[in-house]
């Protein structure tokens, strides 16, 4: 791939914040600024306010004075010279929420930085009330709760990471094994950092976007960043049931299988809007609600919705008869109180159209009383809800891995969201900078099907250039949503796996599918870069196996992994030995079981995942993957630990020289190497 040259940035994190098309555009803008009325000594920080305003670069809608104020607040010396990388950092900060790209899942993709570092006091108060309510019964949090919404309690008490880890477990129970959380009375800086690392990696594992936030931000309790993360976690919790799998009664919203396919592809907030309009229609409401801001700020939709869902709790005077929007909003919230709903917002928040709080309010109403029939329609396409569990897990891991790359589009459904080719091109661009020809790419929204095919044809072409195996695969297969070409269930023999999706039987045959190979390319490039830096040969899976066994043996322990499908791995002991070998203090052996029965094995598996994330491994596997000894997951879990170890500075590890990664993506998925690659390290003894 030496022929592809993109715009490269020395800082991998900074490179990850932009696609190549964005970097090329910003490079051109930077060169224009440098030549446009700068001081004699070259482009200085103090020049940026005027120059960026004149050329309309970054932070659209900001005045020159606002830009100047921001620069003065953010940088101590305005006489510093500006190179391209410093310009990128300034641009990134200036964009903040104002530059966040709108998408159907904007609440998860929203930037975790804001231009002037302002926060919404209403949101803070709502989230404090939420945390106080959902965590009040946790005896280990007595020193944290209750928090006062009128103070900075939320930010101060988040500084050690314990509260945030607990909140993640409320949102998605079981994400963090709480035995891995450092919880003693006084934590040192190292222990706090471990908690924050565990928090951020676990937040990614439930679908949060955390590309603009680091452990130091949490340790310092930076309000705009902490609030942004908490907002995402709480919304994931509130929207957890807004899908057909958790609430199959939602099928009542549609008429046929085609509509069900569309409904399954929608993000949760879009489904919530469709549900809301469905209920409003019952109340003869005339308007269509399309957002959680301007469309609900008059309170009329809420008044109608609550009367439809809970007419027994209505009161006189009716909210619908009120002419004053603020008074109507007050009556709406009183009605919600009588239903047992948490408020999440004030009458003023409704009138001002606060989108985050309105979304939270409607989501909670849905949780308490969705008004859908308990007698579901007996329609054959509901068979789609019983998809193979392994396929569902792998789809989840693909989705989380793609979202973790920091691309501009948030993925809700792998099969649907990748069909226009654009997301795949964005992902490729993150992993192999410069390989995508953006001049011929078609950006969404794409109405003409042949434009989607053009994108997907380029995806297939690049795959072949990257030496992926794509026999008889064409761009149109991706556009048509041919699941066997996007996600393949790898089996140990050449068998077929059949599942039913919308009543259609689909055979998932054994071959190297595109996403598997893209993930495989990602991790191998990361490890290859580290090993080349150490003047060693390219990495193969047998090297990963040997490295892991050598690390455990050299630490004085006796467990061994014969292959990545060694059934003994299900006990978890080998991975705990490996984690302890790379960082002796990270495993608390008093919490480890012998792994002799299923319950003990599951406890160890859960602990392994949290300890690995606590170290700094970005992984998306589930305990079931360890219990079942999923070959791919075992390989990539090991590779993630190896990658973390090799990236540590020389003074922090006993062997290997300092390795700094310069690749475009630091995220290692648990789904990054395919089965065929691991066969070389597999023998008969591993499949006992």
From TrEMBL:
Gene3D superfamilies: Calponin-like domain. The lineage of its organism: Eukaryota, Viridiplantae, Streptophyta, Embryophyta, Tracheophyta. SMART domains: CH. One of its GO terms (biological process) is actin filament bundle assembly. The keyword Repeat applies. Pfam families: CH. Residues 121-238, 266-370, 392-498, 538-646 form the Calponin-homology (CH) domain. GO terms for molecular function: actin filament binding. Interacts with F-actin. Residues 656-688 have a biased composition (Low complexity). GO terms for cellular component: actin filament; actin filament bundle; cytoplasm. InterPro entries: Actinin_actin-bd_CS, CH_dom, CH_dom_sf, Fimbrin/Plastin. Residues 652-688 are annotated as: Disordered. Keywords: Actin-binding, Repeat. This is Fimbrin-2.
